[in-house]
Amino acid sequence: MLSYLDGLGQRNGTAYLELVAVTLARGHFKSLDDLARVTGADAAGLLYTAEAEKMKGLRGRWE
Questions:
Q1: Which helix (H) or strand (E) holds 26?
Q2: How far from 3 is each of 9, 15, 25, 56, CA to CA, in Å?
Q3: Whole-angstrom Cα distance, residue 59 to residue 55?
Q4: Residue range 9-55, pLDDT digits in tens
Q5: C-alpha closest to that of 51 among 19, 16, 25, 14
Q6: Which contiguous run of DSSP H or E holds residue 6?
Q7: Exposure b/e, 28-54, CB count within 10 A at least 16 = b
């Protein structure tokens, strides 16, 4: 994935990579919002939980 993104950046510039990142993030935020709406959960709570789980996974890679 990193090599793919690096290639995109080299071919199209960093502004393009920023646009890709924002577009992907919007999709994820919309999914969380949809999940919150359907389940009655708090969207901010779902986001916090997802971030905490991701950080646990990243921390384990460097320990």
A1: helix 14-39
A2: 10, 17, 20, 24
A3: 6
A4: 899 999 998 999 899 999 988 998 999 999 999 999 999 998 888 88
A5: 25
A6: helix 2-12
A7: eeeebeeebeeeeeeeeebeeeeeeee
Q: With a cut of 70, say whether residue 60 has pLDDT above it.
A: no
DSSP letter at 40? Answer: T
On whether the CB atoms of residues 33 and 26 are closer than 8 A, the answer is: no
The predicted structure's pLDDT at residue 42:
94
Q: Which amino acid is located at 41 in the chain? A: A
Structure tokens at 54: 């991701």
Q: How far apart are CA 29 and CA 19, in angstroms?
A: 15
Choose among 17, 15, 35, 39: nearest CA to 27.
35
